[in-house]
Amino acid sequence: SDLMGSKMAIGNLEMRIPFTGPKELAVMESGFLFSDLNIFIDGGVAWNRGNKVKMSKSDSDRVEAIDGDGNPIIGSDGKPVMVYDSNVKAPVFSAGVSLRINLFGAMILEPYYAIPFQRSDVKFGVFGLNFAPGW
C-alpha cells in the first residue's frame, strides 16, 4: 500500500555504460546490437489527501489490525496483531543493475536485478524484466 496514491514523488539516479554498439563508444563493438549496462538507485513515495508522509515509519505508526467486520485480529500469543497505519506513507528505495537491449529500434528489453530496501519478505534482490518502447 506504500506505492498507492493519487500524488507521488519519485527520483532515480543511474550510471549507464554503453556495452555493445559503435566502436568509439561501447565496450564491445557491434554494428547491429546496441545495449547499455546500468547501475541505479530509485526512490519514491505515493500518497492521498489526508495521508501523513514521513521519511520512515516507526513503532508509533502501528495500529491494531482489524478483520472485515471491524474486529481486532488476535495473534497466536493472545495479543492484537499490529500493522502499520495505512494513512502513514514513507518513501521506498531500491538499488540494482540492469542491461538495456535495443531490439533494432522496435523495443527495449531490460532484465534487471534490484534490491528493495524496505521489503522484509525478501532476503536478497529480485530479478525482473521490463519492456519499453524503442529508442
UniProtKB/TrEMBL annotation:
Top-rank lineage group of the source organism: Bacteria
Name of the protein in its database record: TolB protein
Organism: Candidatus Sphingobacterium stercoripullorum
